[in-house]
Amino acid sequence: MSFSLTWHGHATFTLYTGEHKLVIDPFFKPNNPVADIDAGQAEADFILLTHGHGDHVADAAGLAERTGATIICNFEIQQWFEAQGVENVHPLHIGGGNNFDFGHLKLTIAHHGSMLPDGTNGGNPAGLLIALKDGSRIYFAGDTALTYDMKLIGEAGGVDLAVLPIGDNFTMGPHDAITAARFCGAHHVIPCHYNTWPIIEQDGAGFADKLKTTHDIDATILAPGQRYYS
Ligand code: NI
Ligand code: MN
Asked: Which ligand is located closest to the Cα atom of residue 10?
C-alpha cells in the first residue's frame, strides 16, 4: 500500500496515489475559513464530488478548468456542470462504479441533501468507495448520517482507510462516527467536516481516543495542510 492524503480543512482532501492526484470536494480559501491553500494553488488529475452543497463543490469548476482534471460526480451534478460549459465530467450514480486511470470508484449510499448552490436539484448525496490499482481501499463517507448500509462495506472486506465526518449538526457526530468506523470495517480513520465553523466544533483527539479504546481502531488527526502516509 502506498498512498497519501492531505487534509485541506473541512471535507476537502488531496489523495495522492503515486501516479495521480485526486481532489475530493474542493472547497478552498477564501470561502473555506480553515483551508491551507487557495483554489489556485491546488493540483488535480481527478476531482471527486460527494454531493452538491456549496461547501463541497465551490471550487470544482474552476479547478477543473485550470488543471484539465476530470470531475466525477452523480448524474444530476454532471448535468449542472455541462449546462455551465464545464467539460470532462464523468457521471456515476449510487451503487454504480467504474474503472478510471487511478483505480475503481463506486458511489455508495449517504443520507443527507445535495441541492446545488443555485438551488438546482443535485440528485442524491453519495459516499466514495475507492479501490486503487495497488489494492488499497479507501472510503470517503461524504456528508451523511450513520447508516446501517455502511455494514455492506465492512461485509465486503472493510477498508484500509475510512474518512468520516464527525462535526455533528449537519452530519454524524463523533459518537455515531465511531459506530460507522466499526460498520465499514475501517483499519484506520481520518475524521473531517469539523472545526470549520463554531457550529461543528469537535474534539478530534477525544474522538481518536474513544475509537481506540472502544474498537481498537487507530485514527490520525490532521491539521489543515498536514499529510497522512499509509
Ligand atoms: Ni452537505
Ligand atoms: Mn458539508
From this structure: 2
Tell me the C-alpha to C-alpha distance, in Å, between residue 187 and each of 48, 49, 127. 22, 23, 18
Per-chain residues with Cβ under 5 A from ion ligand 2: 55, 143
CA of 144, nearest ligand number: 1
Q: Where are the beta strands (DSSP E) in the chain?
A: 4-7, 13-16, 21-24, 46-48, 70-74, 89-92, 97-100, 103-109, 126-132, 137-140, 161-165, 188-192, 218-219, 227-229
Say how many residues make up the chain.
230
> Architecture of domain 4-223 in CATH?
4-Layer Sandwich (3.60)
Each domain of the chain, given as residue ranges in start order, spans: 4-223
- Contact in structure between 57 and 39 (CB atoms under 8 Å): no
Ligand nearest to the CA of 25: 2
Please give the distance, rounded to the nearest whole angstrom, from the Cα atom of residue 11 to the centre of ligand 1. Answer: 10
How far is the centre of ligand 2, averaged over its atoms, from the C-alpha of 86 (Å)? 22
Ligand nearest to the CA of 52: 1
> How far is ligand 2, taken at its centre, from the CA of residue 91, in Å?
20
**pLDDT tens per residue, range 57-92:** 999 999 999 999 999 999 999 999 999 999 999 999
Cα 23 from Cα 12, distance rounded (Å): 7
Q: Which residues contact 146 (CB under 8 A, 6 or more apart)?
A: 172, 176, 177, 179, 180, 183
Predicted structure pTM score: 0.98
Which numbered ligand comes closest to the C-alpha of 112?
1
Q: How many CB atoms lie within 10 A of CB 137?
A: 23
